[in-house]
Amino acid sequence: SFKDWNLSALPIVDDKKGKCIGTISETDLRGMNTTRFFDLLLTVEEYMHKFHGGEVPPAITVNPDTTFETALAKILENGTHRVWICDKENHPIGVFSLSDVISQ
């Protein structure tokens, strides 16, 4: 589970290109119970479309050279808790989160 690994979110990565295309978080899974058991058979993309009413929010990304200030501004501007750090091909290589800021 997310808690077992001390995670609150994972990037959604395109199978063919390995590009970061979205985020699935604990919030997206809130309300998961036995009455929604069959949702577990959906693909991540199908689940996110269902959960977000047809819209899968895009991944909020930065590159490794992004400044702390810019990364934090992106988090605040987008009302999210994290930005994915991606290489030039948009492959996820890390995450920068509000938890990183608060824990310092």
UniProtKB/TrEMBL annotation:
Record-annotated CBS domain positions: 55-104
Pfam families in UniProt: CBS
Gene3D superfamilies (alphabetical): CBS-domain
CDD domains: CBS_pair_SF
SMART domains with a match to the protein in the record: CBS
InterPro entries: CBS_dom, CBS_dom_sf, Diverse_CBS-Domain
Keyword tags: CBS domain
PANTHER family: CBS DOMAIN-CONTAINING PROTEIN (PTHR43080:SF2), CBS DOMAIN-CONTAINING PROTEIN CBSX3, MITOCHONDRIAL (PTHR43080)
Record's protein name: CBS domain-containing protein
